[in-house]
Request: fold
Amino acid sequence: MVLVHGYLAGGFAGKDKCITSPDNVERLQTRAAGKSFEQMLAGAGASIASMASFEIYNAMQTVVLRAANTSSSSFVSYRIYKQVSCYTPAGDVALWFMSQPLLMNKSTFDGLNAEQQAALLTAAEKAEAHYLAEAKKQDAASAEVFAKAGVELATMSAEDFEAWRALAMDTSYKKFVEEVDDGQALLDLALAVE
Reply:
């Protein structure tokens, strides 16, 4: 069972230009964070280079990559700010999230008495709030690190986000619905989250 829902946000970095909307990645060699993002970026005309986050720095240094998408903390820990001219951090509008939940064996939870279960759920609620606050601090801290390094900061607008979502409907969302049992129902649930 999911005891604590945790999410890390991410953004884009561009070697030569800012990435905020789908038209910004056309004809760019781009690293995406995951299969669904690769499908969406390819739909926008990007060439996809699959690699781990720790490989982004060298790929940008050797100009194998022109743009990348990963978590805020990875952008900082891998010093991507040394290789790019523009960073679009997660902010009020963010496109990319990575789920990092805290899981617990359901039968173990069910084996606890009511008082223990209640205590664990109360602690989990506090942990979830703390996780969210700390994740937002990471997003803000990443923007500060890039700004201090002289990298231009870009902001994704609500209109940019809607353009990405429209593209996803025709690319990664469509593939998800085709490939996953009850995919449409699951997608509808995901899109219902505010």
Q: What stands out?
A: Strands lie at 2-4, 7-14, 29-31, 47-48, 67-71, 86-88, 96-99, 102-103, 152-153. The mean pLDDT is 93. The longest helix spans residues 114-148. Residues 2-189 form a domain with the D-Maltodextrin-Binding Protein; domain 2 fold (CATH 3.40.190.170).
